[in-house]
Amino acid sequence: MITKDQSGAVIFAVLLCLSALSPTALGSSISAQEVDAKIDQNIIQEEIGDVATIPISLTEGSDASLAIYGAGIEYNVTVHDTDSDGNITVYLNTHTFNEGSGGGFSVATGDSLKSVNKSSYAPLAQGRYTLVLSAGSTRQDTSALELQTGRFRDGVLRATPQDVPSNTTAIVKNSHPVDNTVAYGDTAVVEFTAEGINGIANFTNPPGRQQIYTQRDPTGNSSTHTATFSNPSSEMQFSSLSVTYEDRQRSIPELSNANITHFGIDVDDNGQIDRDLQSAISAATISENTISLELSETIELPADGDVLIQYGNITDPDTSGQYPVTVQVGSAVQSGSISYGMAGLGEFGNGVGVDVESTMSTPIVEPMAYQYLSDSNDKVYLLFNTSQFTQPRNATIDVTLWKQTTKGTEAERSRSISTSFRIVNRTATVDVTNKSTWNVSESKAPVSGETTLAPGTEITVELRTEGDSRELLTRYTTVGKNRTFTTQFDLFNQIREGTISIIVKHREERISKIYRLIYN
Q1: Which of 89, 214, 347, 483 has a Cα at 20 to 30 A from 440?
Q2: Residue 442 has pLDDT above 70, yes or no
Q3: Which stretches within 260-416 are classed as H helix?
Q4: Please, what sign has the CA dihedral across residues 460, 466, 468, 471?
Q5: Is 404 exposed, middle or buried (0-12, 13-18, 19+ CB in 10 A)?
């Protein structure tokens, strides 16, 4: 018979043993029953080529498994709520999945992707896929992933006032749709909507911004390389230049037939050569992996100036990826990279590129003579600072965004959208048609007109009398969305009868002719 004291001691010992056990020791089935998980969206729609976002809610700090089924695909992805916030966002880059035979899974910062298990693989295509979320062996929730072929829509031309700070986000935010013209000094913003491009294009480190960019010629038999040396802060001198492809084992292009087409200095970062140096080349040497130039004179490279050299008739290696290169100007060396194959096809890589053609007498040599911004709504904005171009007035700039892929239907493999704009003078006109006498009621004198300046630009309208009195009135107004403006002067007890003149200014610069009227 167990005494009371003995019974208490036994009970205490059992409780102590139980408290020492971890949840894992108690069995994974108990842990699984405690996990509550769900997919926070019933239907997830995305374009092929984009990144599908799959939001998951679950018990804080736990694991979950996401299975994807359909059209020959069966995958299981295990994730962990590392930051214990009860949320995990799973990303599926459909382009990477298709090109890499099943890669492309990731999770948002703060959580962990533990494993990706493949039972069967097929490229993602247009259609519906089933998503099943489980915790342990318990099925918790289902959803659907609907993929469709993205569309390329017509480009939209926008313009941003000259006064907006040179920040890409601010420039796009303050831009407005315009006709096919942009005033010199304003920023031309070309907006493209290209569904399915965000998972494809390399917006983080585009090949067009690398030390050397290779552009495949239309024939496909050769390429043209453009190398850039950027002088960061102070003036320097040089009398030699060399371009070296460093990875001799895998990535040396055939240089023996290289033909230099452009060589010079870009002083204002517009992609155009302002000082041509081809005539200064006294000797050119081509080795297995290097192009070297000796110059007949010492060249001054200003601070923030770029040296550009472009040479064609190059045969690229049959590889894909990013490889090291160096560009040496005088004694200064800059190290960078070049991308070949699909990784380097197009300024944004993976078969996404931009063609820029202009009627300016000075060609644009730099691969990406523009700023850019992309967003999650499949929009790509290309920003052109018109004040930096050489001889731009009345020049037409044609811009084409294109995509080439190896997968999908024939129509899906090659797509492009284009738009163009013309750079015009900064002008304004006042609406005084058929007026010689200004008759106003109650001394209120409205003034309206049109301008080539971007909507949102603040301008000044000045009205002054002529003769001995020389009275001056000033009004500030903002250019409207249709590039018109209007303001009003109160002439009561300020201007006597006589001849008055009206002019329009921006930043104290007159942008209109002088309009003279009789006021009575």
Answers
A1: 483
A2: no
A3: 410-413
A4: negative
A5: middle
d(CA 230, CA 70): 50
pLDDT (tens digit per residue) in 358-395: 999 899 999 999 999 998 888 999 999 999 888 777 89
Q: Please tell me whether residue 3 adopts helix, strand or coil conformation.
A: coil
Supply 234's token pair: 């102070």
Give the Cα separation of 378 and 191 in Å (integer): 10
Helix (H, G, I), strand (E, B) or coil at 219: coil
245, 317 Cβ separation under 8 angstroms: no
Q: What are the structure tokens assigned to 280, written together?
A: 């200064």
Report residue 113 as tokens. Answer: 């992707």
Q: How far apart are alpha carbons 197 and 201 in whole angstroms?
A: 6
Q: What's the N-to-C CA distance of the chain in angstroms? A: 125
User: Closest Cα to residue 87, out of 112, 53, 58?
Assistant: 58
CB proximity list for 312: less than 8 A, separation 6 or greater: 217, 222, 223, 224, 225, 258, 259, 261
116 Cβ contact list (under 8 Å, min separation 6): 75, 76, 77, 78, 102, 105
Q: How many CB atoms lie within 10 A of CB 481?
A: 10
Secondary structure (DSSP) of 82-124: TT-SSEEEEEEEHHHHHHTTS--EEE-TTSEEEEEEEEE----
Nearest residue to 178 via CA among 511, 457, 520, 414: 457
pLDDT reading at 20 higher than 70: no
Q: In the predicted model, what is the mean pLDDT of residues 341-369?
A: 93
